[in-house]
Request: fold
Amino acid sequence: MSWTTARRSDLFSGLSARHPREAGSFSRRVFLERSATAALGLSAVGPLLAACGSGENGATPGATGAAADLQLARQDNPVKWPIYEDNPPIASGLEPEGGPLKIYNWNGYVWPRILKQFGKEYGVDVQLTTFSTSDEAIQKLATGAVDFDVFFPFPDRFGRLVVGKILQPLNHDYIPNLATSVWPSLQDPFYDQGSQYTVPYTIYTTGIGYRADKISTTPYDLSNPYEIYWDERNKGKTYLLDDSREAPIHMLLKNGITDINTEKPEEIDVAKSDLIALTDAVNVKVSTDDYTNIPEGKAWVHEAWSGSMISAPYYLPKGVGPEVLGYWFPEDGKGTIGNDMIAVLRSAKNPVLAHHFLNYLLDEKHGYDNFVNYVGYQPPFVSIDPDKLVTDEIVPENLKSAVVRESDFDTAYFLAELSPAGQTIWQNAWAEFKAGV
Reply:
């Protein structure tokens, strides 16, 4: 049986008549978009981090205190972050506080029903506040202008949050599901060995989404699939992610540069030149609405996140089946991969309750329901059989390349944190491209 419109209705039957994502842009994570905000990203966790520069592992030579602790975690350079004496984990054996539990998260990135269920089970009010950009969130957290318990960070800014003491270390006694539900590789991730400050939330790849019924050539037809962005037949219908890391990364990979975290100016210039060339070639556009632009036909080719493509069938016009959608990710697995995380803030007024919430989202049923019924991004659970996601019609057969496997993390390139100096180079290149779009 095919993945039909009726099946799509069943899949989202737990939602209200108007899907929450329709209320606005689904900003799973959007990095800096304009050069005017670049300074916030570099110094948002305080002047010590602003001083971090180009020393070993990203730390300034001779720096002291938190600045000296900033390291650039890589798959071949795993990092175990320190536990600071003035920022210890909470004690074991404590009862959850009475709330309210305050959550700070991306827009549209957790199922409201899960929040209601948690609140009912623990007898507390759960309050969700959303943000649109990483810098907006970090700046507010760093200045103490907001009051939250749980935060959803991301590896590319994670080190700053640790050494800036924005996050508190976790007490795993309250999070037993981490050891039972999560892939072993993400119980001890390279960016946070021992999961000292975070637990994984969702996993994703970054590939190319498209409307197969609108284009003459797909990425699979090309020896260099990234050349699809230059197909003049898709002029005005070609999009990149409005993301200062993701879009340049596809230009790097197109040119055979596989260090997607490079800080070499000459390599970043290669990506910038190709980005700028796309403006004249195909009138390229940028957006983070990949999950709606593709199914609605606004975009025929769109750099896309895998989770967005799993959600895309919901937004197809009535009577149009998911067979018109496509998602390309390198068959050898050598593309961009990543995962988002959940953490407890150092300033949390309900830290025990917050730990219980992390454990709740790592419950196999709750995490699976959150994925299937709302966010479209997989949790890294050992109980999820990637093949069954297709045979059980959670993911259409023609979008099976959007399913992420644990083994993908062995071969793909992980989008990781840059030094402040490196981030400036990337941001300047992105700003120059955006000025012409």
User: Anything to note?
Assistant: The longest helix spans residues 265-282. Residues 1-48, 50-65 have pLDDT under 50 and may be disordered. DSSP finds 18 helices and ten strands in the chain. The two ends are 43 Å apart (CA to CA).
